[in-house]
Design a protein that fits this description.
Helix content is 31%, strand content 20%. It has 17 helices and 23 strands. A hairpin with a 2-residue loop joins strand 14 and strand 15.
């Protein structure tokens, strides 16, 4: 829509912001036939749930570094009805702060790197010419062989990176502001399936779960077979572990027979009562329950059960990762809302909320003011950060520490590219567990040859301070100008000048990684940090921040620091049920081929539009954020 285009003035629901909760509510209302207007002052979908390419992220950072948005000063008002007043909206607290961005490589490739690249290209060219000439001499007209020759003659991509080279590949990145994994059996996954919204997205199973134990990374056994195959757990420990997991899975937290006496105690005390070794306690507490020593017993048991119940549904681990990043998930619900008649308008904000009196006392939201236009609504749904200051009793007291890192290799190399989850345990200097998610090129998160590592934890100080221990343990953080090579293991990190001998030795060391006994520390190069971004955001899902708001105004929280997003389903369902208690929450949407028209000769235009939109959306592959057209 054009920026100055007038909108229809009457709606059942107006939703401000395209965050996760807001998008689910908008889809649910549109699905049951309500007239929905979904607006966002940004030019991208998702708000604090968004995913950006590298250039888009830089633009987002530039906006975040500016001063807070105005709070409705000099608001131009249209004509209001008697008894109506306008409460200005706007950013009521900083949504991003403590921003720290850093490069660890030079702007241009160094002389040695350029020489390596030139040598690689020369070898590839000579090899390609040989292959092509052999193919020509054979006189074969086989197209496949010609294609092979062409592919072999192509210049291979250099493994060296500079700032400018990375920036030219900006479209190949999908960097999440709020990366989330989905438990295979969870409320969110069940909603995706039951509503048929899953057809708008693609997912990959997390291939491995790691933990950090005894100053090295260790794989976590995620199945009975893995438990008995691992060499990191003794035979006695394996039996103890299987017995404990069986007790947890067979005794729900609300059946207090097994857990009597531990209801008000930490989960770690229950583990102690089972005489678990420190090794097993670490695996259960940090890798399976993904808890901490402060986690209550019943919560720890529930977390353990959630992990175990999700095993084996879609892969060897319990977790799924959305292709193109978690920022795709809000857009899936926006697509469904649009298919069923929802109106979308990006780059258009609400400057004020119209409040009117109710007979007998009380207040009610009558609509919003946007671009000097009064838009009336029966219900207003908005994110906490966009709500009027008068609707909030306080600002968030808790924050989330986030880190996004681009590296030149995996934190733990493997034969095939892996999608990795690591719950980095609390340690000296890091009192909170840190969730680490590593994604590679196959998830469309980054170009070939790079990895993206996300870190998230509960804020204590600044993100840079909260994540410092994990960053130092997992990455090589010294500036790399291309003149030195690293000889890094999981217990030491040194630098030496590059020579042909040291390079060969380093390559041979990496080749022999698989020959090391599994019980011994595995030597490998730490990944070189190429770029990092660390920042803090407020955590708005913990406390009820609303204060004396009209009954038809509904506030939505933003991302939290937990690994999954089941809480957004509960919150969206509660808002929807409050608005429409007699309607089904997100009933299954039909596939295009399931739509049956009553009159084949004169099909209804509404059904034709739905079918066309569904086909278009289901065939469309998700692209970068800023390429989406405004609806």
């Amino acid at each position: 829509m054009a920026e100055d285009e007038l909108l229809p003035t009457e709606y059942d629901v107006i939703v401000i912001g395209t965050g996760m909760v807001e998008s689910i509510v908008a889809a649910a209302a549109s699905r049951v036939g309500k007239k929905v207007l979904h607006m966002d002052g940004n030019e991208y979908y998702g708000g604090m749930w968004a995913a950006f390419n590298f250039d888009g992220l830089q633009k987002w950072l530039s906006e975040c570094r500016k001063e807070d948005a105005s709070s409705g000063e000099n608001l131009s008002l249209p004509k209001l009805s008697e008894g109506e007043t306008v409460t200005p909206t706007g950013s009521q607290f900083k949504t991003v702060f403590n921003i720290d961005e850093k490069w660890y490589i030079s702007e241009e490739l160094g002389e040695r790197q350029l020489k390596d690249t030139k040598d690689m290209q020369t070898e590839a060219k000579e090899g390609g010419e040989g292959d092509a000439s052999e193919c020509a001499e054979s006189g074969s007209g086989d197209g496949d062989k010609s294609a092979d020759a062409d592919s072999k003659s192509k210049t291979p991509e250099s493994k060296h990176w500079s700032q400018n080279k990375l920036k030219t590949s900006y479209r190949k990145f999908n960097l999440d502001l709020a990366p989330k994994l989905l438990f295979a059996r969870s409320a969110f996954v069940e909603l995706l399936i039951s509503s048929n919204i899953a057809r708008y997205a693609e997912f990959r199973s997390v291939t491995r779960v790691l933990t950090y134990l005894d100053n090295r990374l260790e794989p976590v056994p995620c199945s009975r077979a893995d438990v008995f195959a691992t060499k990191h757990v003794s035979v006695v420990e394996k039996r103890m572990l299987m017995k404990l997991l069986t007790l947890c899975i067979e005794n729900p937290p609300d059946a207090n027979t097994e857990f009597t006496g531990f209801e008000d105690k930490p989960f770690v005390e229950y583990l102690n009562s089972k005489k678990l070794t420190p090794n097993l306690q670490h695996y259960v507490l940090y890798a399976i329950a993904m808890a901490s020593e402060k986690t209550p017993c019943m919560e720890g048991v529930a977390r353990t059960q959630k992990f175990l119940n999700s095993l084996g549904r879609y892969g060897n681990t319990p977790f799924l990762w959305p292709m193109y990043g978690s920022g795709e998930l809000p857009q899936c619900f926006c697509r469904l809302c649009a298919v069923f008649g929802g109106v979308y308008y990006l780059k258009r904000a609400a400057e004020g909320v119209v409040i009117g009196d109710i007979e007998g006392g009380g207040k009610r939201c009558n609509g919003i003011i946007s671009n000097q236009q009064k838009l009336r609504t029966q219900h207003l749904v908005t994110g906490v950060a966009d709500a009027p200051k008068a609707f909030l009793k306080s600002t968030p007291k808790i924050g989330v520490s986030r880190g996004i890192f681009i590296t030149d290799r995996s934190i733990l190399p493997a034969e095939k590219e892996t999608l990795t989850l690591l719950q980095f345990p609390p340690c000296q200097g890091s009192p909170e567990p840190i969730t680490v998610i590593e994604v590679g090129p196959s998830t469309n998160a980054c170009p070939s040859g790079l990895y993206v590592v996300h870190m998230t934890c509960k804020q204590q100080k600044t993100a840079q301070e909260d994540l410092a221990v994990a960053v130092q343990k997992l990455f090589h953080t010294q500036y790399s100008d291309g003149t030195v090579d690293r000889i890094d293991t999981d217990t030491q990190a040194t630098q030496t000048k590059k020579t042909a001998e040291s390079a060969a030795a380093g390559d041979q060391e990496e080749e022999n990684v698989g020959d090391e006994p599994p019980i011994e520390p595995i030597k490998h190069h730490k990944p070189q940090l190429i770029w990092s971004l660390q920042f803090n955001v407020p955590e708005t899902s913990v406390d009820n921040l609303s204060d004396d708001i009209p009954d038809n105004v509904h506030l939505c929280s933003g991302p939290d620091f937990d690994i999954d997003i089941d809480y957004v389903v509960d919150q969206a369902k509660a808002i929807f049920n409050k608005m429409y208690p007699d309607c089904e929450f997100l009933p299954r949407a039909p596939d295009p081929e399931e739509i049956v028209l009553e009159d084949d000769e004169q099909p209804g235009p509404a059904f034709e539009a739905e079918s066309s939109d569904v086909n278009e959306e289901s065939e469309q592959q998700p692209q970068e954020q800023n390429s989406k057209d405004e609806e």
